[in-house]
Amino acid sequence: MSTQHNATLNGNKVRIVAFMVAISGLIYLISGNIIPVVILVIDFAIRGFGFRQYSPFRFIAGKINNGLFNGSSKPVYAPPKTFAARIGLTFSIAVLVLHLTGWLLSASILASMLICFALLESIGNICVACYMYSFMHKTGVLKS
Q1: Average of pLDDT values for 25-46?
Q2: Alpha helix locations (H) across 2-144?
Q3: Residue 18's CB: how many other CB atoms inside 10 A?
Q4: Which of 12, 20, 107, 26 is nearest to 56 (CA)?
Q5: Is the per-residue pLDDT at 79 higher than 80?
Q6: Helix 11-31 crosses helix 78-100 at what angle (to 10 degrees)?
Q7: Which of 10, 15, 22, 45 fits a 20 to 30 Å CA distance from 124?
Q8: Taking all residues of the chain, what is their mean pLDDT, rounded to a whole number?
Q9: What φ, ψ does residue 10 adopt, rounded to 5°?
Q10: The pTM is what?
Q11: Nearest one of 71, 72, 60 to 18, comparing CA atoms
């Protein structure tokens, strides 16, 4: 499923997913267990390449949204969020590779950055990658 066919997402779900990303990152930082990072890689890949209906995080976020907000929706433009998922995928792969090659401090720093960005989205409704997306469009780096 391409994001061009569905130009909006539920902003409530997006913010819940971002919180789950932050929690996964924190679990990795606290435990040193790589499994949460593997899960992030898989979920970001699913959401970043047009298959968000198969995302476990999105599924869980839908259940939480239904329970907490009676299924309400706040539409947000999808392409910047898809771009953000691809940036998250890049960060997660980097954390995974750094961890597996023994660069644990570097992996922890990148994981901490990912957590910060996810918390900005979740708590503050500030999507840093979305601002990057907008800037890149304005400067012609990205085309529609």
Answers
A1: 97
A2: 11-31, 35-48, 56-69, 78-100, 104-124, 128-138
A3: 24
A4: 20
A5: yes
A6: 10
A7: 45
A8: 92
A9: -80, 110
A10: 0.90
A11: 60
